[in-house]
Amino acid sequence: MRVATKLAAVASGAALVMTISACGSVGGADASGGASAGADGAPAGSLPHVQPDPEAVKLLPADLQKGGSITMAADLHYPPTSFLAEDNKTPIGYNVDIAHLLGEKLGLEVEVKNVTWDGVIPGIASRRYDFTATNMSPTPERLKVLNMITYWAAGSSLVVAKGNPLKLSLADQSLCGKKIAVMTGSTQQETYVPEISKTCQTNGAEAVDAVVLPNVQGALTQLASKRIDGVFSDTSQMGWAAKQQPQAFELVSPQYKKKEGDDIVALGVAKDSPLAPALHAAMQSLMAGPAYKATLEKWGLGTGAIPTSELLK
Fold it and tell me: Does the domain made of 156-252 have the CATH classification 3.40.190.10?
């Protein structure tokens, strides 16, 4: 009986998270509680079309200046920035939209490839894929193998069970000793949880019990089935989960306050890729028009707009 009860709880959690990922079936609001969802799970409303930018096109490798296609690698398990529509085939989300708009600026088709998070950087570095738009922070380690192009400001937040029964917060030591899920290769895993754990141990408490998982959906399933105490990931993903299932999940305020730096995220291309200058010019051009902010606002992420893009080498 106890085994059957446990399995039933896990199955219930999985069904709940499937509802989140198949967001067309949950209807209602986007991550900010604003626009209503369309048939594909995206907030309703079309984006402005953009025209190719001749100056950006000139920076492309010669074989692409008259057209062609490039590939964008992303893990399509991260609503509202990169995920699959209700048909479980069509890539949608902010990062998908921005990739296609960059393609329009360059006069190119962009093919989105569904790649696990920990396979993205190796795939880019080996030139299997051309670039990635995956909310990736430009860390020194990543810049050893990638050139990166800044394009918006994200944040990191904690989602817990409705009502926050353990009274967890990123602003105090309440995470010490708790089971907190983080995603494989994320900044939360590599930087923020170690920072929090160091503070815990300095003050005589246990380190955070980090549970490293491959994607947000799996983490939310474990949270729903009470196998973990919280999920620590990008605010966009956490806000989306809480808005889609308010009866199950709660977004904890405030966001994580970084010890230094900001929350800028960047596209990634292979080190010294000839595509880097063209993508950077296309991003600058996109930011100069209405489509950039309209895309952010479509997904409830308008506060993340930045005024200019930087190419980091």
Answer: yes
148-174 per-position pLDDT tens digit:
999 998 889 999 999 999 999 999 999
- Report the C-alpha gap between 232 and 255 in whole angstroms: 10
Q: What is the pLDDT of residues 123-135, one digit of tens each?
A: 999 999 999 999 8
The CATH classification number of 54-154+263-312 equals 3.40.190.10
Give the strands of the sheet with 131-136, arranged side by side: 109-114, 69-74, 131-136, 264-270, 146-153, 311-312
Peptide bond into 254 cis (omega under 30): yes
β partners of residue 147: 269
The residues that bridge with 230 in the sheet, in sequence order, are 180
> Amino acid identity, residue 249?
F
Using a cut of 0.90, tell me whether the model's pTM lies above it. no
